[in-house]
Amino acid sequence: MSAPAATTNNWTMAKALNEGMRKSMELDPKVVIMGEDVGKLGGVFRITDGLQKDFGEDRVIDTPLAESAIIGTAVGLAIRGYRPVCEIQFDGFVFPGFDQIVSQVAKFHNRSAGLVKMPITIRIPSGGGIGAVEHHSESVETYFAHTAGLKVVACSTPSDAYWMIQEAIADDDPVIFIEPKRLYHAARADIEAAPTPLYEARIVRPGQHVTVAGYGPTMSTLLESAKAAAEDGIELEVIDLRSVSPLDMPTVVESVRRTGRLIVVHEAPQSFGVGAEIAARVTEQAFYSLEAPVLRVTGYDTPYPPSRLEHEWLPNLDRVLDAVDKIMEY
Amino acid sequence: MSEHVLAVHPEPDLVQLLTPEGQRVEHPDYPLDITDDEISALYRDLVLVRRIDTEAIALQRQGELGLWASLLGQEAAQIGSGRALKGHDMAFPTYREHGVAWCRGVDPLTLLGLFRGTNLGGFDPREHNFNLYTIVIGAQTLHAAGYAMGVVRDGAVGTGDPQRDTAVLAFFGDGASSQGDVNEAFVWAGAGNLPVVFFCQNNQWAISEPVTTQSRVPLFQRASGFGFAGVRVDGNDVLACLAVTRKALDHARNAQGPTLIEAFTYRMNPHTTNDDTRRYRLGSEVETWKLKDPIERVRAYLTRVAGFDHTFFEKVEEEAKALAEHVRSGCRALPDPTPESVFDNVHVTMSDELREQRSEFVDFVSEVSA
After folding, report:
1. The CATH number of the domain where A225 resides is what?
2. Which residues contact B318 (CB under 8 A, 6 or more apart)?
3. pLDDT at B370
4. pLDDT of residue A3
5. Contact criterion met (CB < 8 Å) for B349 and A173
6. A–B: how many Cβ contacts below 8 A?
7. Which residues of A touch B337 (CB under 8 A)?
8. Nearest chain B Cα to A75, which residue?
9. B171 and B127 in one domain?
10. Does position A149 have pLDDT exceeding 70, yes or no?
C-alpha cells in the first residue's frame, strides 16, 4: 500500500473513502466497483464520485437494482479472477443479498478446499442519526459477524477510512465494510502516514477508570462522553474496536485488566450483539479483573424507530454517561 | 383466474433431431453435421453417466453415500449440452449435473465427497472449467452471469478467435425458474448482453411440485420478457440438445448475447434418494416417459441406421462395468477428513480466535478418543 499523497490534509470520510478506492483501482486492474448509482451519480452519498469518469464503465459498474445479483455476480467475477467492491446503497437493502453473502461469498473458499478465493469487499453505509425514513438507518454488522468466513470492519475517522478500505480490498477474504454514514461529512481530518493493521483495535483515548469500547458510528459519541466524564474526574479509556470480526480481544482485555470496568457501545440492537459477545469473552478471559458487570449501551430490541425518536433511542452522550455512573457504583 | 384458462398453454413443438424411435429428423434452424462415429461417442457418454448414477444410488443404499440426486432420464440433456462446450468455456451446475461433469473431464469420485460427507465440494472449478455444485436453488445462475461479466472485461467475446471467445453455461431446473436469483440473472444477462446460456432442464418436477406450480407459460417463453431468445428442445434427444446448445454458445461467444434453452425432459427417479414419488405422481406417467428414453433412441439409430453391431455395444458395456468398479471402490476409499480440518480454509488467513477454537477442539477430540 502506497503512502498518501501530500495533499491528504483536511479530508472528510467521504473524500478519504473515495481516494482510498481510487488508490486500490490504480494499484490493481482487477478491482471493479459495482452497485446502484455508483457511476455518473457517484453513489447517493457521492463516495464513488468521479471514479467512473476516470476508470471507465467496465470498472465502475452501474448495476440493475437487484442486491442479490450485485453480490452473486461478484462471486462469479471473483472466480474469474476479479476483485469486486460492491456498494449496497443503504444498510436496510442488504437483506435481498443475504443468501449470496452468507451461503456463497462466505463459504466458497472453504467449499473449494481453499482453492478459490473470494476477495470481495461489500461496502454498507450504516447506522442512524440522519433523519432518514425506515430501512435507511439499520446496523447490520451482527448478522455478518455471526457468519463464518466473513470479516466485518467499521471505520470511524477519515484516516482509517482511507487506509481500511484499501486494506479491505487487498484482503483475499471477503470483508463487510461498515461505513458510518452520518460521519461521511461530519468532520475533516488529516490522513496518517501509515495504516493501523486492519483487524487491530486502537485505544483512542487513554484513561484509568472505565474502558469504553465501540466502533464506527458511535466513536464520536464516546469521545464526547470521555470529555464530559473527565470534567467529573472520571477518566474513560476509549477503544475503537475497528474490527467486529475478528475481534481484537487482547487490546480489550489488557485495558480491562487495568480499569476493571467495561462498557460496550453500539447502535445495533442489544440482544445477541457485539456487546454480548465481548462481555462473554471478557468474563472468560479477565473474570478476576472485573470490578463490575460488563454493561452495554446499545440500540434497543425494537425496529429502528421513526426518525423523530432516533436521538433518544440511539446510544448518546447521556446514555453513555448514565452507564458510567452505574458502573462506578460497584 | 377463470377455470377455462389453462394453467399452461398447449405444448409448442420441441426441437427434435432424433425421434424416440431412433429416426433422424431435420430442423431448419438447427442443422447438425455429425458423423455416426460421433453419435456413437455420445452413446458411450450416455451409457457411462447412467452407470455412474446407478452405482451412486446403490452406494447410497449401502450407506456409503448420505444422499444422491439421480440424473436418470436427463442424460441426453446433460451430455448434449456438456459436449457443446469448448474446453475454455465455463459451466455452472446445480447438484445434479453429473453428466456435464463427465463431459468436462471431472472424475466422478470428485463429485462423491459432497454426497459422502467427506468434503463440501473440495475441487478447483477452474481446473475443468466446471464450478462446484450449488445446492441453494438458482444461486449459481448469478455466478454464471458474473463470470460472464469477467469474460467480457477480459475481452474474450466477439473477437472472432475461436481459442479466445468464451461462453458460460448456467444450469438450473424448472423449480429454480421461480427463484429471484434466476430472474435477476436473466435481467443482468439481457441488459448486459452477457455471453451466458441458461440451460433449464425442465424435468417436470421440483421435488413434489409439478411445473404448473411454477409457471403459467412454457418456461422458454420467459426469455422474451428479458430481451433474449428462448427455445424448447427435446431434452431426451442428445442430438437436439447438442445442436441447440452449440448454436446458443456460438451466439454468446460472438457477443450476440444470452439464450434460454428449456430442455423438456423427465426426472425418472425421485428428487433424491430421500424422496418418495408415490405420494405425488402416478407410475403411469413414468411409464409414458420410459418410451422416450434418451439412450434407447440412440441405440436404435446406431443399430438400425448406422449399422453398429454387438461388438460396439459390448465394448461400451465393458467400459461401464470398469467405471462402476472405479466408482464403488473409489467411493469407499475416500478418506475421512481429520477433525482439525474443519477449521481449514474458513479464511485465507486464520484469525487468532479461530486458532484457539481449533486447539480446544483438537485437544477435546484427542482426549475423548484416548
Report:
1. 3.40.50.920
2. none
3. 75
4. 57
5. yes
6. 143
7. none
8. B143
9. yes
10. yes
Task: Tell me the three state secondary structure of residue A266.
Answer: strand
Q: Which residues of B touch A58 (CB under 8 A)?
A: 152-153
Strand order in the sheet with B196-202: B90-92, B168-173, B196-202, B259-264, B229-234
A6 pLDDT more than 70: no
CB B315 within 8 A of CB B243: no
> How far is the C-alpha of B19 from the C-alpha of A198, rounded, in Å?
63
Q: Is B294 part of a structural domain of the chain?
A: yes
State which residues form the domain around A128. Answer: 13-183
CB contacts, 8 Å: B157 with chain A: none
**Cβ–Cβ contact A65 with B under 8 A:** no
Neighbouring CB atoms inside 10 A of B264's CB total 28
If asked whether residues B274 and B350 sit together in one domain, one would say no
Q: Which residue of chain B has the CA closest to A113?
A: B122
Inspect the interface and report whether the beta carbons of B132 and A111 lie closer than 8 Å: yes
Name the domain count of chain B: 2
A209 is known as an active-site residue: no
* pLDDT the model gives residue B58: 98
Q: Could you give the number of structural domains in chain A?
A: 2
Mean pLDDT of each 10-residue bin along chain B, 370 residues long: 42 85 94 97 98 98 98 98 98 98 98 97 97 98 98 98 98 98 98 98 97 96 97 98 98 98 98 95 96 98 97 98 98 95 95 94 88
Helices and strands, number each (H, E), in chain A = 12, 12
Question: What is the structure's pLDDT at B355?
Answer: 95
- How many CB atoms lie under 10 A from the CB of residue A73? 34
